Amino acid sequence: MTSVVFTEGRKFDLTAIGRLCIDLNANEINRPMEQTMTFTKYVGGSPANIAIGVSRLGRKTAFIGKIADDQMGRFIRGYLDKEGIETRNVVTDTTGAVTGLAFTEIKSPTECSILMYRDNVADLKLSPSEVDASLIADSKALLVSGTALAASPSREAVLLAVDYARRHGTKVVFDLDYRPYTWQSEEETAAYYNLVAEKSDIIVGTREEFDCMEKFEANPGHDDRITASKWFGYAAGIVIIKHGKEGSIAYSVDGQEHRARSFPAKVIKTFGAGDSYAAGFIHGLMSGWTIGKSMEFGSAAASIVISSHSCSDAMPTAAQVTDYIERCGRGEITAG
Amino acid sequence: MTSVVFTEGRKFDLTAIGRLCIDLNANEINRPMEQTMTFTKYVGGSPANIAIGVSRLGRKTAFIGKIADDQMGRFIRGYLDKEGIETRNVVTDTTGAVTGLAFTEIKSPTECSILMYRDNVADLKLSPSEVDASLIADSKALLVSGTALAASPSREAVLLAVDYARRHGTKVVFDLDYRPYTWQSEEETAAYYNLVAEKSDIIVGTREEFDCMEKFEANPGHDDRITASKWFGYAAGIVIIKHGKEGSIAYSVDGQEHRARSFPAKVIKTFGAGDSYAAGFIHGLMSGWTIGKSMEFGSAAASIVISSHSCSDAMPTAAQVTDYIERCGRGEITAG
Amino acid sequence: MTSVVFTEGRKFDLTAIGRLCIDLNANEINRPMEQTMTFTKYVGGSPANIAIGVSRLGRKTAFIGKIADDQMGRFIRGYLDKEGIETRNVVTDTTGAVTGLAFTEIKSPTECSILMYRDNVADLKLSPSEVDASLIADSKALLVSGTALAASPSREAVLLAVDYARRHGTKVVFDLDYRPYTWQSEEETAAYYNLVAEKSDIIVGTREEFDCMEKFEANPGHDDRITASKWFGYAAGIVIIKHGKEGSIAYSVDGQEHRARSFPAKVIKTFGAGDSYAAGFIHGLMSGWTIGKSMEFGSAAASIVISSHSCSDAMPTAAQVTDYIERCGRGEITAG
Amino acid sequence: MTSVVFTEGRKFDLTAIGRLCIDLNANEINRPMEQTMTFTKYVGGSPANIAIGVSRLGRKTAFIGKIADDQMGRFIRGYLDKEGIETRNVVTDTTGAVTGLAFTEIKSPTECSILMYRDNVADLKLSPSEVDASLIADSKALLVSGTALAASPSREAVLLAVDYARRHGTKVVFDLDYRPYTWQSEEETAAYYNLVAEKSDIIVGTREEFDCMEKFEANPGHDDRITASKWFGYAAGIVIIKHGKEGSIAYSVDGQEHRARSFPAKVIKTFGAGDSYAAGFIHGLMSGWTIGKSMEFGSAAASIVISSHSCSDAMPTAAQVTDYIERCGRGEITAG
Fold first, then answer.
1. Which residues of A touch B72 (CB under 8 A)?
2. Is the Cβ of B235 closer than 8 Å to some Cβ of chain C?
3. Closest Cα in chain D to C119
4. Beta carbons within 8 Å of B6's beta carbon, 6+ residues apart
């Protein structure tokens, strides 16, 4: 599969840029959060989860981000260090910013929501001059999370990081990760998502996220193929459009269309599914697998995470994913 | 004791105005917060704690405040309702504000700190036109917490509430409760603290808090008597200056000075001591006790709270306080 | 007249605090501003005009304020110096603030409007620690303009200045000068106007301005006498309520009511009438004249200013006012 | 000359997007502004000046921008209408924004400065949804002024306008027009200037402005050729780098380098030189002239404007420029 070819011989497989925050997951689940009395703390944020996931799968990863100068920030740095993720470009804020929080509410396996604390958060204060170009030059791929584009100066830091990636032949993986809060308007979102997508090699998002990018375009039927084609006219090699339970479709620049089977799971909550999928898929591509096999691996990794209480902490190893696929094959795991 | 005489025959003993927030108390204590993995949720905020404390002591209370339109806000309203506190003037924010958070870190019984989330909080968005004058007119006393003066429009709401109190003969109890965050400058703090203190019947604060108010005054020796005298020239009947472990001194407008003994406690954390003391003291005064006896009752209530994991939830009933005083008298409780 | 007695033997008759800005007056008048091609520059701002007016009448004045670090700011300081006004407490901003501007539009003598530039203005950046208490202690009176209460930190600077005035026996003259822009809400305005009015010896404003202060009061008939009485319950000795063309009424704490005749004028524009009136009235009171005679003198000064192109630059000397009154008496000046 | 080929048969030659403001030019010149007493009002702002200049040269132009809902805004619209510029996409602000102001100070012909009012200005409030794609589709070229990128939502409106231009084959002329105020940081400026330059057909700026864009690049010698080459790798056909008195150099994608002679002038002030140069140059290119001849024409137009009191109002007709060139040729005009 040659739709996206990574430059070999680099020190890091993946450098992720963007959000580092704290998940506070309800311990008493299957009820509204008003009735939850205790919460467990985990590292969170989509790019953090993906970096942790890729690292668990045995790959060298690094992170570019900003943390608060408080106990939450120090917990995040300590956790990334423990996971073997390079944190020399994880900058500590000096302006009194706080760590972003996400309290999860799990009313039922299919009815989950998040209560976010995103005012004055450290992750959005990463500035262009703090981005280490050498780290990007030393990586096969740069993972960009769309939420990091939501405000200045993080927005400009990401735009510069993408620029560095293109200059150094580092592939750009753009995970749309659209969260309405922190954005001022849909027009603003569309403007910046398009600027980054134009320079990305791999673009991953839900149908709704791609619709959001196409606010000023003509795609009235929300046609996946029209969406993907646009980006093949720029830099993209692979465009993945996710349709929730109906599964995902990957389009590649060679005109192919790829689908992968999904795996059963005893679902606790749906959070983290996308992040573990992305981690597994990137691992597959970097391993030289076909797009189809990479998608399948990502899919199995996602099933493991949604069967667990946390996102970051539940990211599986390659052996665990392989084992899960085999057990599903033997019918040992069924939906619950 | 006639330094402050409450108007009898009113529907409510106390209406508190100001902060309603959430405490997230570390479950694993005696360690830095970086190592704390789970937290338990409680209603928090100094005026909330005092209202809950006074209610537990058997008195009719009400609250004037603003909560976020989210699960945390609904939890707060539900808890106040359950405690029998009138919440008809607890307004729900419609601007997307969040609930203030306080994560507690308990390294040791004497080394405690708080990690605050105070950006864009609902409690500071209470506006003057939302203050219900009839609730204040129906109360013996209005409890004002200084933190509610930290930003507009909550600041103006409190100034108006104090104005209503004076027009209706409702006594104003001003708990300085100074928290540096959210204030722009010390000059700003001094300006507003003085404006409210000039119209207060009872003023309670630490020596440091009174120093803060006297920024533009001449009291170089930080003399308690000079501090108290100033306010007797305005509306005050009682001024209580707290000196931490050295205990508190209450000055009354009749020239008297009152001290109360303290009680032993097996201290878990020091948070909430001031709030339970205030609740107990107000209950005593309203019961017609002497200032000395009221202080003693407050002191015992404080010892109960600092021996517990929470602030609000640990507020004792009158029977519990009396029992605690008796057990201390019998030597059954010793410092731990 | 003893409703307000000034302390004699002070270095300054009047210190004004608040707005220093620039008026840009249309040279081509009696047309909409769209058709005005050139503008003439003058020092402006209500308290600046009053200080200049009182100085022209032969009295020692000083100013407490803040100017931008630009050509407009330097022009203002130079003009005040030239007028003999003490400017040692006119602070130069260092944050990049600009000088407030007021472009006047004179469609006809009775149809005038102002286009204001009030974003990021230097005058509202005066902070409490910049207020020189000794200047206030050395003055017979402190003139406070309500607009200076519209934003922090100027708001707190004024509150502190009033506090200094009361401590030092300096009379507080409060010119309501309400301008809707820069205020967040009517509730906010009412809150701060009341706080300053409670501590003022002389309060001057239009009926509409007093209504604005009484937002949370019961004065449905907008009765001047009820309005004045409230303030006699605080510190006020004189309350002047202006009714535009119907003239002004001054109420004094001794229960008297005073009206003064007005003078004819060949009106160019109405701007500056209130400021010259205030300057003349203060001069009269300080000269030991009756309230009635002081009002008459203010009224004549106002007629001179509205017959001229500027406000500040047209402020008359005592000889000019006396001469104007005499010429009116001889029928030499008629309305035009 | 085929480095940039405009699509023929379009209704408008040029649509400009960005700043519409007011110049207040000192009438008493050759002195510091402190001593200037009167000012004359003109329409101003770089893209406004260029649009007016191109219109005066006989071409159809349109404007995309936002004006304040006040007398200054209405004056601007009226002036553009009078000049025959299409204003249907000049939107009136509804949020209380003001018109940007520029007071000029002319100490000597070579010592000029500007005092700007740029807080809360209407021009920076233009939003993406207000940009009329059909106007851009109907134009040969879109003129973008860099200052419009300084803040949201104007920034996103410009990014979208450029996107529309590229989709419709409308050439993008990017006038860097860098003004430090209103930008948060140099990094921010570099990020957005690069994003627009990547999509521009013609880029015009001073050496300092190009340095500003190259903040994260390696061009230590500030080499014009390196600068120009970068943009030929994107969409640019012509890059013009201005070196003040040393003249300008135009680089074209065919590898050529062009310089033009300059013309003498009796200089009153230097403001407006760049705008009239741009207008003349665009007119030349659109007339099918060589780059050299177009530069010469722009240069003569600039000499006319700097010999006059205003910028916009002094923009010459084609006949005036031709006449000026001829008179210079006959030695009738010499530097003064």
1. 33, 103, 115
2. no
3. D119
4. B140, B141, B171, B285, B286
Q: Edge-to-edge, what's the strand order for the sheet holding D21-26?
A: C111-117, C101-108, C21-26, C38-44, D38-44, D21-26, D101-108, D111-117
Q: Which residue of A has its CA nearest to B181?
A: A96
Chains A and D touch (3+ CB pairs under 8 A): yes
pLDDT digits (tens, 9 = 90+) for A202-239: 999 999 999 999 988 888 899 999 999 999 999 999 99
Contacts of A115 in chain B (CB under 8 A): 70-72
ipTM of the complex: 0.94
Report the DSSP pairing between strands D139-145 and D111-117: unpaired
CA separation for the pair D190, A163 (Å, rounded): 12
- From A152, A187, A194, residue closest to D127, measured CB to CB: A187
Cα gap A93→A73, rounded to integer Å: 9
Cβ–Cβ gap A194/D152 under 8 Å: no
The pLDDT tens digits for B49-71 are 999 999 999 999 999 999 999 99
List the beta strands (DSSP E) in D94-210: 101-108, 111-117, 139-145, 171-175, 202-206
- C106 or C324, higher pLDDT: C324
Contact between chain D and chain C (3 or more Cβ pairs less than 8 Å apart): yes
A97's CB contacts (< 8 A; 6+ apart) are A66, A68, A120, A121, A122, A125
pTM of the full predicted structure?
Answer: 0.94
Q: Rounded to an integer, what distance in angstroms lies between the CA atom of residue D97 and that of residue D92?
A: 10
Residue A291 has pLDDT above 70, yes or no: yes
Q: What length is written for chain A? A: 336
Are residues A187 and D128, on separate chains, in Cβ contact within 8 Å? yes
The answer to whether the CB atoms of B128 and C184 lie below 8 A apart is no
Report the residue from D32, D74, D98 with minimal CB separation from C71.
D32
Tens-place pLDDT, residues C93-115: 999 999 999 999 989 888 889 99
Residue of chain C minimizing CA distance to B159: C191
The answer for C 51-80 residues in CB contact with B (under 8 A) is: none
Establish if A132 touches chain D: CB-CB under 8 angstroms.
no
Q: Which residues of A87-126 are buried (b: 16+ CB within 10 A; e: fewer)?
A: bebbbebeeebbbbbbbbbbeebeebebbbbbbbbbbbbb
Average pLDDT over residues D165-189: 94
> What residue ranges define each of the domains in chain B, with the CATH number in brackets?
12-19+45-97+122-329 (3.40.1190.20)
Chain C neighbors of B187, CB-CB under 8 A = 127-129, 153, 156, 160
pLDDT at A336: 66
